[in-house]
Design a protein that fits this description.
By secondary structure, the protein is of the alpha/beta class. It has 2 domains: about 5-90, Alpha-Beta Plaits (2-Layer Sandwich); about 110-250, 3-Layer(aba) Sandwich (Oxidized Rhodanese, domain 1). It contains 9 helices and 13 strands. The strands form 4 sheets. Strands 4-1-3-2-5 form a 5-stranded mixed beta sheet. The chain has a 4-stranded parallel beta sheet with strand order 6-10-9-7. Strands 8-11 form a two-stranded antiparallel ribbon. The longest helix has 14 residues, at about 155-165. The chain starts with a strand and ends with a helix. The mean pLDDT is about 90.
Length: about 260
């Protein structure tokens, strides 16, 4: 039976995160995955049989504030998760101590078609808003690696290049796996006087939308589940955790953790 993976997030004010988490938990009885709920929104990924995933997506969209949720689906050879976890946190994605706003009109997201045109321009700097090991596995052509080990370090990289980008009149085009990191950081970057755009829906949406995504993408896309990596057709590859994490300062820990998660399925 075919297992389907569905990833999603949305920044939206949630007055009672615990109550929403309880409702999400009731929708997940036939699924595995991980969902985080906070006062600022929801972020998660689930997996299961297609009918069960569809029922979950429909049920979640019926919750106030989630009607416009976008789900990014991909098929699985390897079960992505070993169990279902729903948790409440202060944020759905952390970004150091920067006091950035994620609410209000979102003006920085561009479609995959527009993105393809942008990244070929000389007045655009393309930034990979992920960890270095993800960049090494696969990236957009001409993308720059900020060389950060954790997303919370990304602000230091931006701060060190703001003057350069502004002086050269660069548009900063950034991307991440599903879009959440870029949506988190874009408003803060705009306060620095930068002209910022982000790839709407991230790499996964680009792969799903652009049937010839391999024209612009080099390598594979790392995913934070037991599948490890996907190709531009959203198919699981043969890449192993050892190939991804070898040489990382915390590589041994990451490999051991990945093995524990895989063996728990």
């Amino acid at each position: 039976m075919q297992i389907v993976h569905s990833a999603f997030y949305r920044f939206v004010r949630i007055p009672d995160a615990a109550e929403i988490a309880h409702r999400v938990q009731r929708l997940c009885t036939k699924l595995t995955g991980s969902v985080t709920v906070a006062g600022e929104g929801i972020n998660g990924a689930v997996a299961g049989l297609e009918q069960n995933v569809s029922e979950f997506e429909s049920g979640l969209r019926s919750v106030t504030g989630f009607a416009e949720l976008s789900f990014k689906r991909s098929e699985c050879k390897t079960p992505p998760f070993g169990r279902m976890k729903v948790q409440v946190k202060d944020r759905i994605v952390a970004f150091g101590d920067v006091d950035e706003s994620v609410f209000g009109e979102r003006t920085t997201a561009v479609s995959p078609d527009v993105w393809r045109e942008l990244i070929g321009r000389d007045d655009v700097v393309v930034i990979d808003n992920r960890n270095s090991f993800e960049y090494r596995l696969g990236r957009f052509a001409n993308a720059v690696d900020p060389k950060v080990s954790h997303f919370s370090d990304f602000s230091n990289y931006v701060e060190s290049h703001v003057d350069e980008w502004k002086r050269e009149g660069k548009t900063v085009a950034m991307y991440c796996t599903g879009g959440i990191r870029c949506e988190r950081v874009a408003p803060w970057m705009k306060t620095k006087g930068l002209n910022v755009v982000e790839l709407d829906g991230g790499i996964l949406n680009y792969f799903a939308t652009m049937k010839d995504a391999e024209r612009d993408w080099q390598g594979e896309c790392f995913v934070f589940d037991n599948r490890i990596a996907l190709d531009t057709k959203l198919r699981e590859t043969e890449t192993t955790e050892e190939q991804v994490y070898e040489g990382e300062a915390d590589g041994e820990w990451r490999i051991a953790r990945a093995r524990r998660l895989r063996d728990s399925v």
